[in-house]
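lol ok so funny story. i was supposed to be doing the assay writeup but got distracted and ended up predicting the structure for this chain instead. priorities right. anyway since i did it might as well share w the group, maybe its usefull for someone
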Amino acid sequence: MQRLRDPESGCPWDLEQDFASIVPHTLEEAYEVADTIERQDWPHLKDELGDLLFQVIFYAQLGSEDRRFDFHAIVDQLVEKLIRRHPHVFTDGTLRGEAREQGIDTEQVGQRWEEIKQQERNAKLRTGLLDEIPLGLPGLSRAAKLQKRASKVGFDWGEALPVLDKIEEEVAELREAIKAGRQAEIADEMGDLLFVQVNLARHLGVDPEQAVRGTNAKFERRFRYIEQQVESRGGDWTRFSLAQLDAWWDEAKTRGL
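and the output, tada:
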C-alpha cells in the first residue's frame, strides 16, 4: 500500500484517492462479502474478504500519511475494545487472564455489552442516544438500529400485535395520499409504512435487511424461470399475457424456486 501511494512511483489512481472517495468502494466490498456468504460461495469468500481488508489497509495508509493513525493503532484500539466489552471472558482486563466467568448467559452478555457501549458513548462529545448510528447504513438496517436504540429507554411497543395495528393505520394513510395525488405526501407515507414494517420485523426477531435480500433472491430465481419459459417459446414477451406470466410464476413456486 505504501508503494501504491508513493508520490514518485505509485499508482496514479491510488494517489488520487482520499478518505471520502474510498467510502463507496468500501460499501461495495462489504456487500460483495455478504452476497458471497448468502450464496454460500465459499471458494470466493477468501478473495472477497481480502478485498474488504484492503479497504481498511487503504484507510490506514491515508491515516498514516496524515499522521493521524496507522494500521497498528487500528488493531490496538480494536483489541482494547474487545477486552473492555468482554469482561466475562477477559476477567482481569488483559489478554493474560485465563479464567472465564461461569454461569453467564447470552442475555446477560447483551446487557453488559450495551452498558459498556453506553459508557463509551458518554465519554464522547456526542452523547445523544441516536448520534452514533451511521447515516451510510442501508435504510432498513438503520431503521432497525434507530428503533432498537430507542427501545433501550422504553420508547417501544411491548409486543408485535400493536405494530400490526400501526401498519394498518399507515396503509390507510397511504391510500388517502394516493387518492389525493400528492406525490410528496405519498413518499412520506410510504416511508412511514416501511419504517413500521421494520419495527414489526424487529419484534418478530427478523433482520429486515436480510429478509428483503432473501426475498430479492427468491424473486430473481422465479423471474429467471419465467424468462426461460419465454425464451423457449421464441423470446417475444409481448406474446404472453400477465395471466400467463403469473401462471409460470406459480409454477416456479411449486418447483421450490
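The mean pLDDT is 89. The chain has ten helices and no strands.
back to the writeup now i swear
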